[in-house]
Amino acid sequence: MALTFKKLHPLYGVEIGGVDVTRPVDARTFGQIRAAFEEHSVVLFRDQPMDDTKQIAFSELFGPLEISGSANPGVGTPFARQSNLDIKSGETIPVDDWRMIYQKANYLWHSDSSFKRVPSLCSLLSGRICPPSGGNTELTCMRAGYRVLPDSLKNKIETLVAEHALSHSRDRVEPGILSAAQKAELPAVRQGMVRVNPINFRKALYVGAHAGAIEGWNQDDGRGLIDELIERATIEDHRISHAWREGDIIVWDNRAVVHRATAYDTVKHKRLMQRTTVGGNESTLPR
Ligand SMILES: [Fe+2]
């Protein structure tokens, strides 16, 4: 059966049909999926009832997977669990529990794993249990985010280096929520502010909530520019807001989009999303 392609947004994003990605995908079909990913940055598949084994098999077609660190309940596995359900008991986690406060940083625009020296290629998020309303994932096209910048700003950021750390995004929500050991696990890293796709050479702005400083700038000016760039890039016209259905799986290109979670009623409703993250293979800085 031939693949079908439906645009999600005038600028980016595509829904692919005509394939069951819960079963082994042949090389020719995956070639088409990978090409769509490079071109459109966001790829949605619907009606794909995933379990963990199937999600790992599909994700690994994109490359080796990252292993979750100690701040996520999926620690030591390829899964970054996004949920209001306790991983052992399945019971709803109280709103004032640190695990729920910790997840609030996901409401900020970010690129997954930008706090790693070699940041991720892409994330795959599957909807396992979805609330009847709320809990959308919003995405923003950072190629457009780069394009709309005035030339003076494009030139300015071309050679700048931003400092990214998991603690920068967590401190924006709840200062000190990460322990000293968790901070030591992930020391700050240096990232370029513009990422170029190695296949089609399209440029994307590379900033988000994990970026907390600019090398050689004072703290306020650096943070001010980072926040200004995020604001310019994440305008309504660049956004997709995805309302999840169980069985959806989205692959997004962390080099070319930022994303954020949105609120839902965590007391009344259950939500379980499983994320796998495919590691990158190159630094964002020039060799
Ligand atoms: Fe994320």
Overview of this structure, please?
This protein is an alpha+beta fold and 287 residues long. The protein has a single domain (4-278), classed as Double-stranded beta-helix (4-Layer Sandwich), CATH 3.60.130.10. Helix content is 25%, strand content 24%. It contains eight helices and 15 strands. The protein has helices spanning 27-40, 52-59, 98-103, 142-147, 151-158, 166-173, 180-185, 219-233, and strands at 4-7, 14-17, 42-45, 79-83, 122-129, 137-141, 161-164, 189-192, 194-196, 203-205, 211-214, 239-242, 249-253, 257-261, 272-278. The strands form four sheets. A seven-stranded mixed sheet has the order 1-2-3-13-5-15-4, covered by helices on one side. Strand 1 and strand 2 form a beta hairpin. The longest helix has 15 residues, at 219-233. The radius of gyration is 18 Å and the shape is globular. 40% of the residues are buried. The mean pLDDT is 95. The structure holds fe (ii) ion (FE2).
